[in-house]
Amino acid sequence: MSIKVKIVSPEKVMFSHDADMVVMPGTEGDIAAMPDHAPLMLTLRGGVVDVYEGAAVTNRFFVAGGFADMAPTHCTILADRALRVEDLSVDDAEARLEGLEKSYEAADKMNVPALDILMGKIQSARAEIEAAQSAVPISSI
Amino acid sequence: MASLKELRARIGSVKSTRKITSAMKMVAAAKLRRAEARAAAARPYADAMRRMLAEVGRSVAGQGGQPALLTGTGQDRVHLLIPMSSDRGLAGAFNSNINRTTRNLVLKLQAEGKTVKILPVGRKTYEFLSRDFSDLIIDHRHLAAGKEIPFSAATELGEQITALLEKGEFDVCTLVYNRFRNVMTQTPTEMQLVPLALPENDNADAGDVAAYEFEPDEGTLLTSLLPRNLQVQIYATMLETAAGENGARMTAMDNATRNAGKAIDGLTLKYNRTRQTNITNELIEIISGAQAV
């Protein structure tokens, strides 16, 4: 028994395959999609999505926030931006983080929703740096 | 009658025009293929987004305090128009269709006593509209800086629209773009972005009635889905515009190449006739000269 997993970015379908379990970073904590999971829609924070086949991680993706649609037979992840963890670059992410922190300093501190969005982006950039630094070939996991 | 030399020059110039138009046609065809592939690649995200939005929308239906992106400001006074054209011309009526539709829409809204603001996307429509409506244009953008349209282009425009809405700068936002029917046909279409008509759920009658749960909750999910959905819709129209532009250019250049071929045939015929006449004249002169001796 497996679920159809799809990881989609606005530009293209990143990954589409059957898997036994997908662990994804929800805004309120990590959550796993497994067969026969109750239908659930959630928002994602920046972080790493692990695709499991059996007990082994077969694919790892970094997503910079987004949404997920879980159902008993399928799981669709709508990522704002998705990359294979192997393709991440620490330098890019650090440059992005620096830019974001600058705009956070300059931002209007009274505009709470805008600040929240910015905080989310900063968190996502930090998670990207972390994921990029810890990127190791899948075989050694 | 034109001299042989002039005719030769004209044939030569039409021939080189034909070379250019047929090369442009080839380039447009290649670009069209790529643009169509990108539009197709972007569709799954938009479909999934629509499904989620329908689901969330169904569960919050009837509740108060919904985001302005969904309900609008409750007024219908200030209209924001976003015409979307290509950056380059030579694509037949592709851009002038957008310009004409936008112009008519502006005049219609103004006749109804509404305030109109315009945010053109694409160089061609900006240039056209700034002639007649330069005081209505609040900002403008190019369709694509480089070769490919990145999603960030749609994100920026979407964020700008959201910010304008929050500041109460407009009540209704309409996008005017060319819907890509096929390579030959692109139809100017108006699409209302704000307030948004929630999509119907396709699986509603497929017996798929399992109630979804939402995390963190419907309201929060909806507030973050809506701006994203706006960007996705804008992105889809941008890709469609890119595909349509190349389709229209391909068709236009195909016609131009054919017309150039016809012009060359006509000119060649005229050239040969003139040449023949000249030879005949010379012969007559020689013969009558010989007879006179």
TrEMBL record, chain A:
Q: Does the keyword Transport apply?
A: yes
The protein's matches in Gene3D superfamilies, at most eight in alphabetical order, are given as: F0F1 ATP synthase delta/epsilon subunit, N-terminal
Q: Does the keyword Nucleotide-binding apply?
A: no
Its record classes its membrane topology as: Peripheral membrane protein
Give the main localization category. membrane
What InterPro entries does this protein map onto? ATP_synth_F1_dsu/esu (IPR001469), ATP_synth_F1_dsu/esu_N (IPR020546), ATPsynth_dsu/esu_N (IPR036771)
The entry's family comment says:
Belongs to the ATPase epsilon chain family.
Q: What is this protein called?
A: ATP synthase epsilon chain
List the gene name. Answer: atpC
Automatic annotation (TrEMBL), chain B:
GO terms for biological process, alphabetical: proton motive force-driven plasma membrane ATP synthesis
Q: Which Pfam families would you find in this protein's record?
A: ATP-synt
Give the membrane topology: Peripheral membrane protein
Q: Which GO terms describe its molecular function?
A: ATP binding; proton-transporting ATP synthase activity, rotational mechanism
The record's listing under SUPFAM superfamilies reads:
ATP synthase (F1-ATPase), gamma subunit
Question: What keywords would UniProt list here?
Answer: ATP synthesis, Cell membrane, CF(1), Hydrogen ion transport, Ion transport, Membrane, Transport
**Key word Zinc present:** no
Q: Name one GO cellular component term.
A: proton-transporting ATP synthase complex
Where does this one sit in the cell?
Answer: Cell membrane; Membrane
Q: How does it assemble?
A: F-type ATPases have 2 components, CF(1) - the catalytic core - and CF(0) - the membrane proton channel. CF(1) has five subunits: alpha(3), beta(3), gamma(1), delta(1), epsilon(1). CF(0) has three main subunits: a, b and c.
Q: Which family is this protein grouped under?
A: Belongs to the ATPase gamma chain family.
Role description? Produces ATP from ADP in the presence of a proton gradient across the membrane. The gamma chain is believed to be important in regulating ATPase activity and the flow of protons through the CF(0) complex.
Name the NCBIfam families on file: ATPsyn_F1gamma, PRK05621.1-4
Q: What is this protein called?
A: ATP synthase gamma chain
List the top taxonomic levels of the source: Bacteria, Pseudomonadati, Pseudomonadota, Alphaproteobacteria, Acetobacterales
> What gene, per UniProt, encodes this protein?
atpG
